[in-house]
Amino acid sequence: MDALVIHAAGDLRVEDVPTPQVLANQLRVRVRFGGICGSDLHYYQHGGFGTVRVKEPMVLGHEVAGVVEEVGPNASAFAVGDRIAISPSRPCGACRFCQMGLQNHCLDMRYYGSAMRTPHVQGAFRRELVVETSQAHRLADTLSDREGAMAEPCRWRCMLFSVPVRCSARRCSSPAVARSARCWSLRRGAQARATSSPPTSVRSLCAVR
Ligand SMILES: [Zn+2]
Ligand SMILES: [Zn+2]
């Protein structure tokens, strides 16, 4: 399966990488859209940022949305054909924050397309991606795949600007959260106003964490 692999600054290649087998709580997804983050550009233009350097071939990308093509045996909450936004963050599940249910504070988070650790965490600019169900957030029918790919940068924006979108962890797998992806593409003009809005449960919004 094709993937976009960076080897060094200016050295970007389309390469064939294997698609892993889908395990019990996993989904195989056909990636439809990906946003190009500033970090992707830094990897491409400078081979990294700060002290973070590309030391080995790495698939770029972490802002993606796609459609489910295969469902693991224990992933019946999803179905083939579901359109989803994908969280690039995979918490360790073992640290004290993960044990407290605060996975977004994980001390050992693995993040798609990141050279911050070695071996690097491979990214999501690929035709097929196998994800945990906990990373998958179904898109509302009113959202495009392109907007779904903006859910990840949106959550950072939401955290910075306290965009007044309220949700609880329970609702985070519902379309209600995916709708919040519009805060990036459609609410940019409202952000200044959003900063003066009452604090909201932004942390749980970022179960797209
Ligand atoms: Zn990003
Ligand atoms: Zn953890």
C-alpha Rg (nearest Å): 17 Å
Named CATH architecture? Alpha-Beta Complex
Identify the overall geometry. globular
Largest sheet: 5 strands, antiparallel
CATH class: Alpha Beta
Q: DSSP strand (E) fraction?
A: 25-35%
**What's the arrangement of strands in the largest beta sheet?**
11-3-7-8-12
Q: What class, by secondary structure content?
A: alpha+beta
| CATH H-level superfamily | Medium-chain alcohol dehydrogenases, catalytic domain
CATH topology: Quinone Oxidoreductase, Chain A, domain 1
> What is the terminal separation in angstroms?
27 Å
Bound molecules: zinc ion
Number of domains: 1
Tally of helical segments: 8
Note the run of SSEs as H and E. EEEHEEEEEEHEEEHHHHHH
Low-confidence stretches: 161-209
Mean pLDDT: 81
Helix content: 10-25%
Could you state the oligomeric state of the chains shown?
single chain
| Counted beta strands | 12
Explained architecture:
The protein is an alpha+beta fold and 209 residues long. The protein is built from eight helices and twelve strands. The strands form four sheets. A five-stranded antiparallel beta sheet has the order 11-3-7-8-12. A three-stranded antiparallel beta sheet has the order 2-1-6, with helices on one face. The protein has a two-stranded antiparallel ribbon with strand order 4-5. The longest helix is centred in the last third of the chain and has 11 residues, at 151-161. The relative contact order is 0.18. The structure holds zinc ion (ZN) (2 copies). The site of one zinc ion has 5 residues, from loops.
